Amino acid sequence: MNIFQKIQAEGLQHQTRRHFLRDCATGLGSIYLATQGHALASGGGPLQLNHDSNSPLSPIAPSFTPKVKKIIYIHMIGAPSQFELFTHKPELVRLNGKNCPKEYLEGQRFAFIQGTPKILGPVYPMKKHGESGAFISDRMPHLAKHADDLCFIHSMQTDQLNHGPAQLMIQTGNPNLAHPSLRSCVTWELGYMNNNLPGFMVLLSGGRMPRVGKSLWGSGYLPSVYQGVQCRSSGDPILNAQNPKGVSPELRRKALDHLNAINQKSYEQIGDPETLTRIAQYEMAYRMQTSVPEIMDISKEPQHVHDLYGTEPGKESFANNCLLARKLIENDVRFVQLYDWGWDSHGSSKSEALNHGFKSKCQQTDKPVAALLTDLKQRGLLDDTLVIWGGEFGRTPMQENRNGGAGNFAGRDHNPNAFSIFMAGAGVKKGFAYGETDPLGYSVTKDPVHVRDFHATLLHLMGYDHNRLSYPFQGLNQKLTGVKQAEVKHGIFAYTM
């Protein structure tokens, strides 16, 4: 039995009676729900995922042929406004500056809006592009050239009104901490494609961490070996991964062998599954010492590539991260996550204004995203790679009126009822728009896609039935899509079942 089989098989066996009573707080209710989880799972019960005994992180054959093998997920932290980017609503132009109709306010919950706000028309114009006629803002001129490659979902929904829980919801499927990210689940499901690189790598830009920090790429209740590895686009790619001064690779190898022997002895005596995870992580770190620096070095890329992305080697930037994402995907990293902070546009300050800070964010990201799509397409990587772009929720059609009055800058409040994302690449339709909203873009009127549905759809694209895919934890078979019903949105697929 290999390391990761031991982790899964023995993780719950080494708990004491006290641990059991502590973790199973719901008692018989947990047992009942666990049985219901089995009963509800399609196809006769949960899937059992077992990695190759000779290579614990090797790829696992999915339930059915996957359309997507790799994913680049670009999360714009702060929730960009759909009305200034991709959602065309002429009614907003007509009603600009007028009081918001009462039917859009009654029974609704807002983060900051008070009283009767004014309708805010789009700050920037947008027009149709490509044969598909997709509406794209003039703030995204480079992306607009890819209109016929994009698959928009204009009917995204979430349960969460505030940034932290909403970020957790769209990244982990749960607004609470301690749940694994979608990418960790994918790594657990499909294993690694490159033995010298992690299956899940994270790149940050915008000068700040996401509001809930590293929880967005944590492994939650899965073994920690499946969590994301954060990399930097400047300096040492991974902190504390290099040998200290005076320590040779040979000496490091001997030291690691001795440490592994100690950890193995500890596991035999105590039985903590995380000890086995630690051994595997040390081994991966050793292999990464030679593979990561070369891959993360963008200075050797041809000048025309730097011109395409707008990259500057040695600096930390969103453009650099987009180029790194291509390089990582090219080297068979299964999931690359980009986070770009600074998209919160309340209008409470210049940096959070649609006519100032938002404009700057568009300038920083438009060209690199378009370059990434161009580069992937030219190299044939979009054939099995899916690119996802979006935030954690949408924005209101009303001007935010914090403290009862409009601010000095244009801004919009949070809106979980409707927002837009786009995808491009493997498995999804090109030049396509899915879902519709009301005349003001506040609520979904056709083909709603809840975050749970979105996750179920992504898992399907990767070859798994979300109803059968679960992980045993605290007496329950935990699903990424949670206990509520989730629906695979076949309407966005570029193929038929």
Provide an overview of this structure.
- This protein has 497 residues and is an alpha/beta fold.
- The chain has a single domain (3-237, 296-492), classed as Alkaline Phosphatase, subunit A.
- The chain is built from 13 helices and 17 strands.
- The protein has helices at residues 3-10, 17-23, 28-40, 90-95, 141-144, 163-172, 182-190, 249-270, 273-295, 303-309, 318-330, 357-378, 451-461; strands spanning 70-77, 126-129, 134-137, 150-157, 200-205, 229-231, 335-341, 385-390, 394-399, 412-415, 419-425, 432-434, 436-437, 444-446, 449-450, 471-473, 476-478.
- The strands form 5 sheets. Strands 1, 4, 5, 6, 7, 8, 11, 12 and 15 form a 9-stranded mixed β-sheet that branches.
- It is globular.
- The two termini are 37 Å apart.
- Residues 1-43 have low confidence and may be disordered.
List the helices and strands and how they pair.
Elements: H1 3-10, H2 17-23, H3 28-40, E1 70-77, H4 90-95, E2 126-129, E3 134-137, H5 141-144, E4 150-157, H6 163-172, H7 182-190, E5 200-205, E6 229-231, H8 249-270, H9 273-295, H10 303-309, H11 318-330, E7 335-341, H12 357-378, E8 385-390, E9 394-399, E10 412-415, E11 419-425, E12 432-434, E13 436-437, E14 444-446, E15 449-450, H13 451-461, E16 471-473, E17 476-478
Parallel strand pairs: 1-7, 1-8, 4-12, 4-15, 5-6, 5-7
Antiparallel strand pairs: 2-3, 4-11, 8-11, 9-10, 13-14, 16-17
Helix pairs in contact: 1-9, 8-9, 11-12
Distance between the termini: 37 Å
Shape: globular
> How many independent structural domains?
1
The counted number of beta strands is 17
Query: Pairing-aware structural class of the strands and helices?
Result: alpha/beta
What's the alpha carbon Rg, rounded to whole Å? 23 Å
**Which percent range describes the beta-strand content?**
15-25%
CATH topology name, in short, is: Alkaline Phosphatase, subunit A
The major pleated sheet works out as: 9 strands, mixed
What's the total helix number? 13
Broad CATH class: Alpha Beta
How does CATH name the architecture?
A: 3-Layer(aba) Sandwich
Helix amount = 25-40%
pLDDT averaged residue by residue: 84
